[in-house]
Design a protein that fits this description.
By secondary structure, the protein is of the alpha/beta class. It contains 18 helices and 14 strands. It has three domains: 7-20 and 156-342, Rossmann fold; 49-131; 359-414, Winged helix-like DNA-binding domain superfamily/Winged helix DNA-binding domain (Arc Repressor Mutant, subunit A, Orthogonal Bundle).
């Protein structure tokens, strides 16, 4: 059996039973009380992060090899309530930080003099790159929950938590077949038209097609790079890179400081960010040894829903995706509607812009009984087991939400 989903794990907005209001409820954050308290104390400052505070986050982010990763950095921040005093702290002050090993303290003190926070901040400003530390409101809550989240996200373009409320990652081979090319664009375009943001890695092949499809669908897309955000890789994707970096259609995101060159080891690392930003991941085409399967595994471990597009059994480019389906690691996805349906995302389509809803309770039960073909009220009453008044009220709320259409004669269908 496929894994039982827990929508709270994904940080999804869930509507209360009996309500189809567009009011979005705050999802559970599963953060420690101390972290929440620190965030509250620093909220005013972090909304407009001081240069000194940001510079210290940038500096701590450069401490590779010291044993101070994002988890320990969070603990340091909780302890000092700011990274400014933490950066200047001595041995005895750092010893008071819970769970911080002496070896990590020693390496930090040895390496600290090599890093100039003010110069890092100057470089950031010169290259017009935004930086969002884990304490910043623009840092995605969903990404913060993964095992090893980036300490800082470096961004070119428009990037906000609101744009990631509904997000699907899409990855695949760099050498797609004509079938894979068509499905990647069709699925990303359909999801984008439904209001979903597409996350991918801007690699040649499926990644680029996913970004292009989202743009064609009038939606937003985020490229996660395995190099600094100011470095276009591959260079052949320069036109696409410019579209995203300008903020017109999305953003370019990286956990690597501006100027960091692309190196092979960085790309598997960035895959966890692709899946970490999304609620679900779709693998369109992938061979048996494709790097996309690494992303699928990471998504599975992060409790994201994984989807795979089936292909011919004799096609090398479908060996990986067919394997994901055969082992029940992934749901079968024939098109974007399969993803919306499996995620229980219902789409209302006003003329201006589609709106996604998370259905719950009776509304979800009734919606699941409907299709594009009209179903009579009496049949719905029989199949749902609901009282006439309750069913009528539920259908009315779904109709007001714009996701169900009522036809003459008491017939109903999905909008």
């Amino acid at each position: 059996m496929l894994r039982q989903r827990s929508w709270r794990q994904f940080g999804l907005a869930v509507l209360e039973p009996g309500s189809i209001s567009k009011r979005i409820l705050e999802s559970d954050q599963r953060l420690t009380l101390t972290w929440e308290m620190a965030m509250q104390l620093e909220k005013t400052k972090m909304d407009h992060l001081s240069d000194e505070e940001l510079a210290c986050w940038l500096a701590f982010d450069q401490l590779s090899g010291t044993g101070i990763g994002s988890r320990k950095l969070r603990t340091i921040f909780e302890h000092f309530q700011s990274l400014v005093p933490a950066w200047e702290a001595g041995w005895f002050d750092l010893k008071e930080v819970p769970g911080l090993p002496e070896q990590a303290i020693m390496k930090f003190l040895q390496k600290r003099h090599e890093i100039k926070p003010e110069l890092l901040l100057k470089t950031l400003r010169e290259r017009e790159v935004s930086a969002y530390p884990m304490c910043h409101p623009n840092y995605p809550k969903r990404l913060k929950e993964i095992h090893d989240p980036p300490s800082v996200l470096y961004v070119l373009g428009r990037f906000s938590a609101q744009d990631l409320k509904w997000a699907v990652g899409m990855v695949g081979t760099r050498r797609p077949t004509a079938y894979g090319q068509r499905l990647a664009k069709e699925m990303s375009r359909g999801l984008a038209e439904s209001g979903v943001t597409i996350i991918s890695g801007m690699a040649v092949g499926i990644d680029s097609l996913a970004h292009r499809g989202a743009i064609e669908g009038g939606g937003r897309t985020v490229a996660v790079l395995g190099c600094g955000p100011d470095h276009c890789y591959p260079s052949s994707n320069k036109p696409l890179y410019k579209l995203l970096a300008s903020g017109e259609h999305g953003a370019v995101v990286s956990e690597f400081f501006p100027g960091t060159p692309p190196e092979s080891w960085r790309f598997p690392a960035r895959n966890r960010v692709i899946s970490g930003l999304a609620q679900a991941l779709v693998v369109v085409e992938a061979g048996a040894a494709s790097g996309s399967l690494i992303t699928a595994r990471l998504a599975f471990e992060q409790s994201r829903e994984v989807f795979a597009v089936p292909g011919r059994v004799d096609s090398p480019m479908s060996e990986g995706t067919n394997g994901l389906i055969a082992t029940q690691t992934a749901h079968l996805a024939r098109g974007h509607q399969d993803i919306l349906r499996e995620m229980d995302w219902a789409t209302a389509s006003p003329e201006e812009k589609p709106t996604l809803f998370q259905l719950y309770g009776r509304e979800k039960d009734v919606y699941d009984l409907l299709s594009n073909e009209p179903v009579h009220f009496d049949l719905l009453c029989e199949r749902s087991g609901m009282a006439v008044g309750e069913l009528s009220a539920t259908l009315t709320m779904l109709e007001l939400g714009g996701i169900v259409t009522r036809h003459p004669g008491d017939w109903y269908s999905r909008a």
